[in-house]
Specification:
3 strands, alpha+beta, Dodecin subunit-like, 3-stranded antiparallel beta sheet
């Protein structure tokens, strides 16, 4: 039976929420394999002069541990 591990990461983007999630996935996948899902725990934005400047996400990334190592 596979074991699933969960880590929490924070990512941001000037483009949008979806891009922030892509950034989180891209960075995590550099060192983590077998990623199954991303759960968005929280979303926030930074505002300057009544305009959104940065989108941020706090998310949990789930991945299966490799039993062959």
């Amino acid at each position: 039976m596979p074991i699933v591990k969960v880590i929490e990461v924070i990512a941001s983007s000037e483009k949008g929420i979806e891009d922030a999630l892509q950034q989180a996935l891209a960075e995590a996948s550099k060192t983590i394999h077998n990623i199954d899902s991303i759960y968005v725990k929280d979303i926030k934005v930074h505002v300057k002069d009544n305009k959104i400047t940065t989108y941020g996400v706090i998310c949990k990334i789930s991945f299966r541990l490799d039993d062959q190592r």
